[in-house]
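From the pipeline queue, job 12 of 40. The input is one protein chain; the requested action is below.

Action: predict structure.
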Amino acid sequence: MSIKVLVISSSPRAGGNTDLLADEVRRGAAEAGADTEKIMLRHMDISPCMECGFCARKGKCRIEDDMYVLYDKFLEYHRLVLAAPIYFMAHCAQAKIMIDRCQAFWSRKYVLKQPLLEKEPEHDRIGAFVSCGGTKGEKVFAGAKVTMKYFFDVLAMEYGENLLFNRIDDKGDVLEHPTGMKDAFELGTRIGQPWKKSN
């Protein structure tokens, strides 16, 4: 069975820097032989978590919106790449809403003690985080990386890699980065094959 790679672009800006990187990651994974799909959150109807407690009782979310498309894909795909720009030192709102709605999986695993996956996956489940931030500060990605650690954990995925670029702000800036597109393609190539973490 081919490795299945899901790339999620959460930027609200079509053709923005993380969007461009997401496309290149997907291209690399496809050239490595993986089955790939890209989803753009800005085209989906996903409501914020209501913290109603329903998932802690039932193991699923009571809000029936496009998040249910993602719930199925999170379980089906072997690799997940989340491309999200940094706004105010954290994920953009579109990404954070999606992450918060994975409380349903957290409740299933840690409250109800139910298995997330029905059977052992054919390939390692790996997550990667791709991001751009405009500031030059050293800690611009620190908060987002902690969030990603717990997001991938709840999805029963290994947090495999980061691809992070600071001082990238205006639309298309990443195209001027000396290695940006190359790094994204190579990340896609790695996750599109049996997993071997980069050095």
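Job complete. DSSP finds seven helices and seven strands in the chain.
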